[in-house]
Amino acid sequence: MLYSRFESKAWQELFLPRLSTKQVTELPKDKGVVVLPIGAIEQHGPHLPVYTDTLIAEGLLTTAFEQLSQEDQVWMLPPLPYGKSTEHVNHPGTFTLSSQTLQQVILDIGSSVKASGFRRIVLFNTHGGNNDLLNMIARELRIETELMVFRMNGMDFKAEIASLFSPEELSYGIHGGDVETSLILAIEENWVEMALAPKEFYDYEHALDIKGGPYVAWVMDDLSNSGISGNATEATKEKGIEILLRLGSKIASTLQVISSFEMRDLKKMVTTTNRKE
Ligand SMILES: [Zn+2]
């Protein structure tokens, strides 16, 4: 079953800012992780709200956190609703940060996570346009704060939902298609205008694809007239619910692993024997 946003564990019991400073101080922190959801506010075609990516972060984490308890010590921060959406900037309703601003905001929040005594942070991202930058920021944050820093993507476990979608959608439905539209139908049905849902894929059979080989830098208007790439006409609420449940459970178990992960265990303790005689 699904849990409504704001009435769930993610927004009540395990919502970090619900605690007082005394309670945060007293939390055990040797194990434990703070999750910072990062989305975007950007055009998603004529049928979806511009809040789509942030809403997906909220929906996935709401579902995932239902499987967690206080013993897991996984805490959620409020989502950072703005991302780097410069590839959509000429579409009204897109509200973007520059890469420099996004980097500084995340570094500042990370420093506060460190100052609050935690040892781990997860950057939980649901906007593809944030990916490259977040990988860089994650490493900067590690260097600046010595926190253990993890970057998760909402779609990290895409194989879990492969049976629900066409191969074309799974590979090239990169924005506002069947997957994202089904998710929003499951999370905020009334925010979707299905009568306007487009079907449009970019020409991935062209000499160069945007997903491999030499990298082709693109903005959305290079790929699409409708603002999407995917088949939104196939979207259903039932598929959206299934995505939330399947991905939510993988996200929950991954957060449990992260919560007790120790960076020092990554390095093998090999005794070197190649000393010169
Ligand atoms: Zn999106």
UniProtKB/TrEMBL annotation:
GO terms for biological process: riboflavin biosynthetic process. GO terms for molecular function: hydrolase activity, acting on carbon-nitrogen (but not peptide) bonds, in linear amides; metal ion binding. InterPro entries: Creatininase-like_sf (IPR024087), Creatininase/forma_Hydrolase (IPR003785). Its cofactor is Zn(2+). It comes from the Bacteria. The keyword Hydrolase applies. This is Creatinine amidohydrolase.
